[in-house]
Amino acid sequence: MAQDFSKIEIGPAIVEYGSGGTMVTFETTIGGVVLNTETTYREQKTDQTGETIVDKRITGRNVSVTVPFAEYEIDVIPKIMAGAEVVTGTGGSKVLLKTGVGVSLLDTAKIAVIKPIAHKTDPDFWLTLPLAYSETDLSYSFNNENERITNVTLRSTPDEDGVILILGDDTITATP
Question: Considering the entire predicted model, what is its pTM?
Answer without folding.
Answer: 0.89
